[in-house]
Amino acid sequence: MTKQITYWSETPLLIAVGTGHSHRFVEKLMKRIVDIGAKEKLFVNSSNGSNALHYAAKVGNTTAARLLVEQNPDMTRVMNSFGNTPLKLAAYHGNKETLKYLLTVTPDLRPGEEGRSSYTGVDGGDLVTLAITAGFYDVALDIIDLYPEIVLEYDRNDQTALQVLALKPDPFPSGNILGFWGRVIYSSPTIKNIHDLKVNDNLTRLLVKRICKTVIGKADHDIIWKILGSAITTAVQYEAYELIEECIVTYPSIIWYDVGGFYLFHAAIKHRQERVYNLVYQMSGHKVFMATHIDENIANVFRNSYFRIPRN
Question: pTM for this structure?
Fold first, then answer.
């Protein structure tokens, strides 16, 4: 029952959990293993260091995850050979139900407790950015509500939650591709996909506001500058207008951030982002200075742009 029987050193329990649907068999097998006094064998690793809870998270087997956590709650924080906890695997593979359950049973480190927290450092950064990448904006909000400073963390790709949001413009109204009639009925959804788009829009807007509020709350210019700046640099390229708007409203000085050698005002022109350009133009008291104090490279961008620069 507990022998590693495959090339990847998997036990029968690992295989059964990995099917994602053999719930009755898994329950009986676990009971039999516990009854013979081999409870510790429930969490035998495969060759890549993954135990049965990792398998449950990877395939979205919430039923098996509950049974396993009941036997050993501490296994929720165990990492496999790739540094992935069950939490991160559930998020990475888009298993929302399992992810939400694991969040309720994966505690943070207690004061003075040694080990790695699932909600700080790279692990915390990975968790929140993976949730956003999977489109689980409501779960990301729940995570941020519980652990606000997770938005300051960088994931394994050196990206923050706000920057990853900037990579996903589709949930925002300016980034979706509804077409003319879709936009007409957007304000009163009667079709499921239109409804889903509106829900995602509301969630992403709330998510951006929550992140910006937390970042500003640090009252540290360097942190604010780096997190908001890297996000708007990405947002300009991916046309996430609403995110840029919130960043500017939250911290107006961010218009002076260097976006690939240009200020935001100029970068908007370079990337043909007329709405961003107009936003900065209208909100900035320095528009004359910014529009006139430019070098030759920026001037060439202006000359080749597809829209006119407003005159005072």
Answer: 0.82
